[in-house]
Amino acid sequence: MKIDAHQHFWSTQRPNDYGFLTPDAGVLYKDYLPADLRPHLQDNDIDYTILVQAAETEDETRWLLELAEKTGYVAGVVGWVNFDTDPESFQKALNGFRKHEKFVGVRPMLQDLPDDRFILRPRVLENLRTVANLDFPFELLVYPRHLPYVYEMLQRVPGLRAVIDHLAKPDIRSAKLDLWLFWMEQISTFPNVWCKLSGMVTEADHKSWKPEDFKPYVFPVMDCFGANRLMFGSDWPVCLQAATYGGVYRLLHDLLEQRAEKTGSNACKAIFGENAAAFYKLSPLNNKAG
To answer: Which part of the chain is the Amidohydrolase-related domain (predicted)?
Structure first.
């Protein structure tokens, strides 16, 4: 069973959610909905997906859950809840969404916030402790500059079940490594923190990237997190700025094959499905979804 642990849907008919959808967005400026993704999943033998929010609104999360109810291949939805609010309001919103069986995680989109230290605000930390006590999945959408604050947060919220999206978006285009790698190695020492091998092609040169460009990033992450704490994510349709869905899938598959001798024969099986099922605590799934 294969699971794409990171994809999005959006609609140009929802301007209050998707302010970034303007003609300047290029290939992204159109509706991307379940019927658009289905053939790509079929072509690459992907059984299920995790649908991740792309707007900082509860309305979008409700809409995604409605789509998930009607889309068999969506195994779970990662939604948005305001973390910078009083604990009572936070818990009310979170618990309301958790009543839906396909609500499997929460993400505050830290990359877009003006305060890089947002994750360390007192009431954000208090609300994160609520998430940790529930053992509920939390997603970190960050850049390398955020990683020192993520590390401090993890020290202050022990036990948080967290995943770093897109390898923390290293600057693959400029081949920058040192500070990113240092902090990823530090963060990997928390056994409850995972990492998504996703969103890589959009951090490289969109027109001229080569598979070799990603080895200095994927291979060290495999070494420090291990094959059992990594997940494949297409980041569709964002990935279409630099690659096809199949191109993203084959890129990671081929990189993993090159490391098969070191990581073991089951690494691909884990990274392309088993780990996502474990991290998101997905209910038993049929072998193939519609």
So the answer is: 3-282
**CA distances, 253 to each of 52, 171, 192, 256 (Å):** 22, 21, 25, 5
Let me know the angle formed at the C-alpha of 4 by 186 and 144, rounded to the nearest 5 degrees: 30
Does the structure show a pLDDT above 70 at 287? no
Phi, psi of 6 (to 5 degrees): -160, 105
Is 74:99 a contact under the CB 8 Å cutoff? Answer: no
Domain boundaries, given as residue ranges, for the chain: 3-279
> At residue 288, does pLDDT exceed 90?
no
CATH architecture of structural domain 3-279 = Alpha-Beta Barrel (3.20)
What mean pLDDT value characterizes the chain? 95
Spell out a b/e string for 23-60, using b for 16 or more CB atoms within 10 Å of the CB, else e.
eeeeebeeebebeebeebbeebebbbbbbbbbbbbbeb
Torsions phi, psi for 9 (to 5 deg): -125, 150
Q: From CA 21, how far away is CA 3, in angstroms rounded?
A: 27
pLDDT-derived band of residue 286, with 50, 70 and 90 as boundaries? Answer: low
Instruction: Please report the pLDDT score of residue 284 as a whole number.
Output: 75
